[in-house]
């Protein structure tokens, strides 16, 4: 559906709740991300005259800012290596996997730092660095600058605001493509000027104007369309399926690009599940909404929105807006730094509608459920074995399975029916001695149980009806179990929060029994898992959609 703005489209506004201050920083802040439990993280770039910064901080419950994740990551010095420290953080995000993604441009004052350019994925609860993505010169040639990113299932998309271009990384296949490198449709249009409040053209002391290439990036809820813009506009888009088709040249891709809308100077964007595109309008100090029908509406306007930057929508439908003051940096204010501390992150509860237009939820990289697609497939199967460690060795040797974590070790206190029977049906005569989660190739994960107090010591034969249980990975555990019960299934107590290695906001399970006695477990995950030291893989989750 085209979102081209019609000539007669005009700005419209509607009453909305007032902006409130969600966080304040004594360092320049241009990005914010919200973890599943609501904890905020701020991106603090190392810009000229603003090099004394921890780069990334967590906002504590009392409003204090803590360098995150700590250690060397927040302690880069000008002559230091950038491999395990943040150099210039330019984007922070939390997507459906519940982890914190950080884009480090890895350059200061236009000079690349050895090992600096990278994407870092962090557990927001523990600060554990889960992965660091680095790319070679074929993906990040000289002059490239990773700017922002979006995730859909296993596909990661990154803009290059230095040369202009799109980086497409398949997390499952560990394969990366650079597309449309340096193409004019990915660069600032000739004659366009980046502007501040009231249309003031930004320039430094030598009257040089910023020339930022492809910067803002969004994906629609299905991950089918990728949108981008330079700060001066326009907004353009392309089908993501084309970007991964290696038979297509850049010329082929350029011919498929759609120009969506001419826009004022912006600092950031967000998109909701109904296709509304939110724009940080730096010229008018407002947040505008570009609708799928091509209307431009004003959501909120406030003088505190000085260079509103990388906005996001959190899980509670709050719009979070850092007022970065970038128009007051030396590069835009004639060589003078006119920024003033503190920097504020402002928040606005999204109304359900604006000028008669429905507003949606945050786009998080998870395809919206459609009918039966709320159930995505079997996530794991479970087996009770007489000797858990012997079974682990067999599965490793026979099939190359890997241990993810032992969430109940044989040295731990056993669990009884009083502890877990109401949740998973453990009978009063039995005790749960051990539990382990393993991964087998690219199929369902395998969970092992070791019990005592049970009569049989061998697995069920083919003439025995029923499995131990199988588990379904779902988006909405209440919806899935409601359908299950309506069809004749019996539910135990639930939903139940997961514990131990699986503890996290939104991580839940709910057991039920089919009419003939087979157990089924519904599971949903919103927060990252904690893996044992030495684990070489992550737990597999079925693809959505």
UniProtKB/TrEMBL annotation:
Domain named VOC: residues: 377-525
Keyword Oxidoreductase applies: yes
Keyword Transport on entry: no
Subcellular location: Secreted
Keywords: Dioxygenase, Metal-binding, Oxidoreductase, Secreted
Pfam families reported for this sequence: Glyoxalase, MRJP
InterPro entries: 6-blade_b-propeller_TolB-like, Glyas_Bleomycin-R_OHBP_Dase, Glyas_Fos-R_dOase_dom, MMCE/EMCE_epimerase, MRJP/yellow-related, VOC_core
Entries under Gene3D superfamilies matching the protein: 2,3-Dihydroxybiphenyl 1,2-Dioxygenase, domain 1, TolB, C-terminal domain
GO cellular component: extracellular region
GO molecular function: dioxygenase activity; metal ion binding; methylmalonyl-CoA epimerase activity
Principal subcellular localisation of the protein: secreted
Residues passing through the membrane, by range: none
An individual GO BP term: L-methylmalonyl-CoA metabolic process
Identification of the protein by name: Glyoxalase/bleomycin resistance protein/dioxygenase
Native species: Methylorubrum populi (strain ATCC BAA-705 / NCIMB 13946 / BJ001)
């Amino acid at each position: 559906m085209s979102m081209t703005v019609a000539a007669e489209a005009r700005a419209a506004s509607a009453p909305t709740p007032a902006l409130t201050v969600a966080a304040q920083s004594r360092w320049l802040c241009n990005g914010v991300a919200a973890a599943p439990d609501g904890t905020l993280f701020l991106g603090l770039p190392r810009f000229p005259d603003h090099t004394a910064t921890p780069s990334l901080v967590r906002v504590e419950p009392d409003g204090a800012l803590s360098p995150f994740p700590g250690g060397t990551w927040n302690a880069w010095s000008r002559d230091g290596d950038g491999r395990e420290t943040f150099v210039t953080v330019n984007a922070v995000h939390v997507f459906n996997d519940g982890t914190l993604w950080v884009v480090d441009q890895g350059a200061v004052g236009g000079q690349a730092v050895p090992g600096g350019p990278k994407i870092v994925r962090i557990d927001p609860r523990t600060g554990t660095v889960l992965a660091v993505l680095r790319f070679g010169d074929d993906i990040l040639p000289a002059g490239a600058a990773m700017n922002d990113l979006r995730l859909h299932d296993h596909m990661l998309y990154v803009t290059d605001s230095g040369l202009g271009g799109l980086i497409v990384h398949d997390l499952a296949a560990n394969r990366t493509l650079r597309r449309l490198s340096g193409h004019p449709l990915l660069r600032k249009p000739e004659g366009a000027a980046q502007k501040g409040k009231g249309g003031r053209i930004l320039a430094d002391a030598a009257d040089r104007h910023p020339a930022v290439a492809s910067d803002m990036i969004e994906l629609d809820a299905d991950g089918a369309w990728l949108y981008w813009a330079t700060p001066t506009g326009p907004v353009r888009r392309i089908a993501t399926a084309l970007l991964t088709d290696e038979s297509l040249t850049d010329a082929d891709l350029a011919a498929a690009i759609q120009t969506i809308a001419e826009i004022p100077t912006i600092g950031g964007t967000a998109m909701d599940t109904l296709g509304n595109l939110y724009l940080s309008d730096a010229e008018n100090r407002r947040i505008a909404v570009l609708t799928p029908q091509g209307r431009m509406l004003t959501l909120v306007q406030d003088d505190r929105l000085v260079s509103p930057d990388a906005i996001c929508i959190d899980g509670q439908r709050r719009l979070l807006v850092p007022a970065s003051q970038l128009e007051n940096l030396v590069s835009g204010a004639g060589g003078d730094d006119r920024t003033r501390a503190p920097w504020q992150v402002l928040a606005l509860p999204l109304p359900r509608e604006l000028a008669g237009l429905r507003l949606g939820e945050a786009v998080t990289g998870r395809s919206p459920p459609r009918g039966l697609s709320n159930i995505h497939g079997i996530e794991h199967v479970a087996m009770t074995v007489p000797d858990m460690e012997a079974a682990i060795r067999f599965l490793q040797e026979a099939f190359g399975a890997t241990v993810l974590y032992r969430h109940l070790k044989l040295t731990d206190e056993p669990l009884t029916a009083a502890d877990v029977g109401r949740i998973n049906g453990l009978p009063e005569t039995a005790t749960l001695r051990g539990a382990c989660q393993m991964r087998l190739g690219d199929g369902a994960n395998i969970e092992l149980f070791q019990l005592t107090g049970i009569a049989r010591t061998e697995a069920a034969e083919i003439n025995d009806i029923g499995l131990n249980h199988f588990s379904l990975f779902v988006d909405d555990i209440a919806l899935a179990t409601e359908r299950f019960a309506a069809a004749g299934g019996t539910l135990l107590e639930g939903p139940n929060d997961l514990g131990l290695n699986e503890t996290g906001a939104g991580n839940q399970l709910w057991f039920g029994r089919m009419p003939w006695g087979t157990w089924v477990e519904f599971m949903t995950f919103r927060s990252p898992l904690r893996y044992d030291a030495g684990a070489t893989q992550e737990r597999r989750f079925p693809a959505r959609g």
